[in-house]
Amino acid sequence: MAGRTVRNRRISSRAVRAAAAAACATLVLTACGSTKDTGASGGGGGDGSGKVGVILPLLTSPFWQSYNDYVPKMAKSEGVDALKTVNSNSDPSQQITDINNQLIQGVKGLVVAPLDSAAIAAGLDQAERKGVPVVAVDVAPEKGKVAMVVRANNVAYGEKACQYLGKQISSGKVVQIMGDLASVNGRERSEAFRSCVKKNYPKLKVLEIPAKWESDTAASKLDTLLNANPDIKGIYMQAGGVYLAPTLQTLKSKGMLKTVGQKGHIAIVSNDGIPQEFDAIRKGQIDATVSQPADAYAKYGMYYIKAAMQGKTFKPGPTDHDSEIVKLPSGILEDQLPAPLVTKDNVDDSKLWGNTVK
């Protein structure tokens, strides 16, 4: 997930069953498969009309705050009648309740950023029984029916961070501050970084901090790790939205925050592409970040939910917006949007969404 402060919560099977049972069973959502328009698939009148509910995972991260700001703008540009966004406050159980509440209100489509890759299945089941199509943003569900997942390639996030640090550091210790491993995003970024280092940079030793998208956890564990390993040469932060500030503060408190070019500088690569990361790159505090497209998440979340409400389906292959639709092992389709590496060389590029936020 793009920067979240998810509390260490897990939905019990009892809670999931109770949430799922709260919905009434009516229609069944038609699966997607090809690019041909196969007619109405439930939810809407076949013309993409009807209210659309938009459920956020949280609003404590600059990334999700920006996404939230983009939603009404992109809904308008795509001709989608989106309701006011709902914030699940980092609580997977609350997110299931939020989905049910939106369905009770009679929405004809849902755009959801799942908090938990597995637990979200209960909410997807509710929507399917109602005949309401769902588009997932940022996180791919492990199971359940969605019309499309709108997401960047999270494996590429870990690989890009690995490649960058590997070119900067010939040998020594590097740290990856991981996300929640209950999330497919956290798992993919972690494994990709780990595997890339092992394969391409065997002289680097990877130390890991499971931080569950929590800033306090990241700061505390990084402080402990640096006490035992003051010779750290690189850091990979999987979510700048929650890890940037605590990481920089921890390094500063230990006298270890050196700018690029200074002796003792710790090379740092992040994920998100928020303005704060760009400022840190300009100041030389961090070296790079992978820009996760908050604007495109909002735009194509709206694009695909309207298409789903019209009964349109898609198939794997290149798109007309520089991305590629792939079929996941679960059978779900995912539009993998481009997420460029940002360094001092391109940090001022006006096309980067992080440079358009005021």
What does this molecule look like?
This protein is of the alpha/beta class and 358 residues long. The protein is 37% helix and 18% strand. The protein has ten helices and 15 strands. Strands 1, 2, 3, 4, 5, 6, 12, 13 and 14 form a nine-stranded mixed beta sheet that branches. Helix 9 (275-283) links the parallel strand 10 and strand 11. The protein is elongated and about 60 Å long.
Number of helices: 10
Strand content: 15-25%
- Tell me the distance between the termini: 23 Å
| Helicity, as a percent range | 25-40%
Quaternary organisation: single chain
Order of helices and strands: HEHEEHEHEEHEHEHEHEHEHEEEE
Count of DSSP strands: 15
Return Rg in Å: 20 Å
Enumerate the spans where pLDDT stays under 50 for 5 or more consecutive residues. Answer: 3-44
Most strands sheet: 9 strands, mixed
- Classify the secondary structure makeup into a structural class: alpha/beta
Shape: elongated
Mean pLDDT: 89
Kindly list the characteristics that best describe this protein.
single chain; 358 residues; alpha/beta; nine-stranded mixed β-sheet; six-stranded mixed β-sheet; 10 helices; 15 strands; 18% strand; disordered N terminus
